[in-house]
Amino acid sequence: YSKFNIGNSSSLILESPSLKSPSILLDNRQDGRYLAKNIILCKCSYNDIKKSIYRVTGSKFLGKIKKMESPFFKKNTKRNILKEIKKINKNFDFKSFVDLKLPRKSK
Question: Are the beta carbons of 56 and 4 closer than 8 angstroms?
Answer without folding.
Answer: yes
